[in-house]
Amino acid sequence: MAEGLVARGHSVTVWTTAHPAESGCHSNESVFIRYFPDTAPGLHSREFNQAVVQALAEDHSFDLMLVESRSAEAALDRLRPPQRPPAIMFIHGTEVSEELSIIAFDRGPGRYLRLLTQRLPAMLRSLARPRAHFAAERVVCVSQYVADHLASVYLAPPEVLRVVRNGIPLPPMPTQADCRAAREHLGLPQDATIILCIGRLAPDKGFDNAIWAFGRVQRDYPCLLLIVGGGPDEERLRSLVASLGLGKVVRFAGEVPQAATPPYYAASDILLLPGVRYEGHPYVLVEGAAMGLAVIASDRAGLGSELAGEKIALTIRPGSVDDLADALRTLLGSAELRRRMGGALRRHAERHYTLDAMLDGIEAVMSELL
Question: 149-173: b or e for each residue (b if 16 or more CB lie within 10 Å)?
Answer without folding.
Answer: bbeebbebeeebbbebbbbeebeee
